[in-house]
From TrEMBL:
Tree of life domain: Eukaryota
Protein name: HhH-GPD domain-containing protein
Cross-referenced CDD domains: ENDO3c
One Gene Ontology MF term: catalytic activity, acting on DNA
Gene3D superfamilies xrefs: Helix-hairpin-Helix base-excision DNA repair enzymes (C-terminal), Hypothetical protein, domain 2
A GO BP entry: base-excision repair
InterPro entries registered for this protein in UniProt: DNA_glycosylase, HhH-GPD_domain, HhH_base_excis_C
HhH-GPD domain segment(s): 154-313
Chain residue ranges for the region called Disordered: 1-41
Amino acid sequence: MSARTRRIPHASAGKGTPTIAASKKRKAAESPAFQRTQTSHSKTGCVFRAARDYLASVYGEPAKKHPVAVRSKIVKAEPADNVVVKAEPADNVVVKAEPADNVVVKAEPADDDVLDAALNGGGCDLSAAPSSSAAAALQLEPVTVLDQLIRTMLSQNTTDATSIRAFRELKRRYPRWESVRTASAANVADAIRVGGLADVKAERIQVILNYLYETRGGELSLEYLHDEPDDEKIKAFLKQFKGVGPKTISCVLLFALRRADFPVDTHVWKISLALRWIPKSATREQAYDLLNSAIPDDIKFDLHVLLVEHGKNVAGNDPGAELRRIASH
């Protein structure tokens, strides 16, 4: 299997007309500080692996702390009403298809048995997550690509606790995305008010839903992105929507599409600066480019989740003496 189509690919640089932002990014990447850091990281991934192992010894294995990932498939329900679909594996969980939608979501186990950190990927507090049973995951947590995208959008510029409450309230009032699409913007904003910037976020969510409705024959789903092997095409597609930036896109790639990507949130950025994994002048976007090229694909999920958890548990995102010692080697 080629590197381009492997299950967890590392995205290659996209082609196209250079933009001012791209030129600035290239200039920063060519700076002496970035070159020195890149050279150091390219020699070995041992520092990152050692950091991952140390954090796992403190917080536990990330894979054991998250609900089982599922890939949802949209299938036509015949007849449209009163259809019951059983989710596997789940403790007799059933999902009823609403008559108006004529669709039902069938949940299937992830083919690679990767454990999902959807809420954590959006920046949530692990203590706020429900039990890891499949039933709880299906009933309460995001499992689809569209869920993950909107969940992460709601996590912007707010705390973990409030973004979780905003997402759950939105799903409680509007169990189907079609209902969110057709609701008034004011009502959608009211549902997510607790998360802040409600009017802006509601408008952006409805823009995405209306786009999908118009371009996908009424199917409000992004599950087809699972079949797109080129990460750069996925990034370009998602980037067109307002409110969907590099971190949000990276979370979708890592947590919903199970690709080898490394989101850089505030915790990851500040800890990486403190550990000198990136130059002092590195912005979050520059840190994203540098760390994604340096961190081995097979530990990106673990290291991201562990760094986020570590950042939430220490004052000022201080890595601590032991992690500094590991990073110095």
